[in-house]
Design goal:
Strand 1 and strand 2 form a beta hairpin. The chain contains 14 helices and 16 strands. The protein is α/β, with parallel strands linked by helices and 408 residues long. The model has no long low-confidence stretch (mean pLDDT 97). It binds pyridoxal-5'-phosphate (PLP).
Length: 408
């Protein structure tokens, strides 16, 4: 137990997080299948029924009966784990079919499924400099931690451009020789700020300055576009993006991530990316559930319409009540708090007194001073739940003497 000699260091690390008011408390919950978004919260000495307001299972597909059936039936036919890496017996019929479906979803030749969306970003961006010697990656300043990690792994030149700022991006592209290989890495829907990148304009700049485009559509796949192919599908831009990255863990309600691209790109990543090669493939049942989920969401645009309608309904209520929230064009509705301690306290009170679960979002997920409560209404969050939320927020704001317009 050598660690005991370093016990102080570990304690110091935890204490510094605690002192900043951003010590993380994981809520122990069990979701109730069939009554999304209801769940049970397990406390030390009691249980409480709650409504989850912060899930990324945006459309409740994690409890869709057909998806559940697909998972069960795959377990019955193929067992639990895949039994290997993709190269060593871990490529099953389920993986192959899922990859075909995802390629079709994004109108690309092929796709490549990985263990998570995080891994897909890290592994793919991380290997790009091996494939493209002299590569420069231009990265939006608000990119997700997984992209940042991938770019660090690539150990190539990295240039950060201001969030969604085309002028800044162009200045930075212009500063590089035209023939230098470049990748512009960005997201479609930014999940903490509820805004959307100017995708077409970024593609125009990419054409002009000879750059590849890499887009993270994690918070858009399943939810935007006629068949759930993301914002790129909605805007008819899929064919202008070189690599589209997505997840199976949010709107599709399973776990796993992927990229979709032309044949030669997928072949190169498949052959060289460590995070793809040296890890066991996702369970067949997970691939089967994801496949079913993707297929369902392809043909049920009404779920997307309802999702947007519910998000608007919540924004209407926040607007009317005068909360300081991000009034964006997406399904994500964050109320700004701006202080980690208050953010945690509000969240605690909401769940303890009202059974409303909204996790505080603190640093390092968002910059310090921009702490927020992020609400993700689904098609299953009805008017009654929304009215209850408004009553609860009003009560907590009054109890804490907070100003709706500016909390911190
Ligand atoms: C959640 C998230 C990921 C990671 O996806 P997982 O499948 O959860 O690993 C990647 N990018 C963004 C923008 C995310 O929000």
């Amino acid at each position: 137990m050598t660690y005991k000699k370093f016990r102080n260091e570990f304690e110091f690390a935890v204490n510094s997080v605690r002192e900043e008011g951003r010590y993380r408390i994981f809520r122990d919950i069990r979701r109730k299948s069939g009554s999304f978004p209801h769940a049970t919260w397990f406390r030390a000495d009691s249980e409480k029924d709650i409504v989850v307001w912060c899930s990324n299972d945006y459309l409740g597909m994690g409890q869709n009966e057909c998806v559940i059936e697909a998972v069960k039936s795959a377990v019955d036919s193929a067992g639990t784990g895949s039994g290997g890496t993709r190269n060593i017996s871990g490529t099953t019929r389920y993986h192959v079919q899922l990859e075909k479906e995802l390629a079709d979803l994004h109108n690309k030749d092929r796709s490549l499924v990985m263990t998570s969306g995080y891994v897909a970003n890290e592994a793919t961006l991380g290997v790009m400099s091996k494939i493209l010697p002299g590569l420069v990656i231009l990265s939006d300043e608000k990119n997700h931690a997984s992209m940042i990690s991938g770019i660090q792994r690539a150990r190539c030149k990295k240039i950060i451009f201001n969030h969604n700022d085309l002028t800044d991006l162009e200045i930075k592209l212009k500063s590089l020789p035209l023939k230098t290989p470049k990748i512009i890495a960005f997201e479609s829907v930014y999940s903490m700020d509820a805004d959307i990148a100017p995708i077409k304009e970024i593609c125009d700049l990419a054409d002009k300055y000879n750059a590849l485009t890499y887009i993270d559509e994690v918070h858009a796949v399943g939810m935007y576009g006629q068949t759930g192919g993301g914002v790129c599908e909605e805007l008819g831009l899929s064919n202008r993006i070189d690599i589209i990255q997505g997840t199976l863990a949010k709107a599709y309600g399973m776990v796993g991530g992927y990229i979709a691209a032309d044949e030669v790109i997928i072949d190169a990543v498949r052959s060289m990316a460590s995070g793809f090669i040296f890890t066991t493939s996702i369970p067949p049942s997970t691939a089967a559930g994801a496949l079913r989920s993707v297929k369902i969401l392809k043909v049920t645009p009404e779920k997307r319409v309802k999702h947007q309608e519910r998000a608007e309904a919540l924004k209407d209520r926040f607007r009317l009540a005068g909360y300081d929230f991000i009034d964006g064009k997406t399904h994500i509705v964050p109320i700004m708090v701006g202080d980690p301690v208050k953010c945690q306290a509000i969240s605690d009170r909401l769940i303890e007194k009202f059974g409303i679960y909204a996790q505080p979002i603190n640093f390092p997920t968002v910059p310090r001073g921009t702490e927020r409560l992020r609400f993700t209404p689904s098609p299953f969050h009805d008017d009654v739940m929304m009215d209850n939320l408004m009553i609860a927020l009003d009560s907590v704001w009054k109890e804490f003497g907070l100003d709706k317009k500016k909390v911190a």
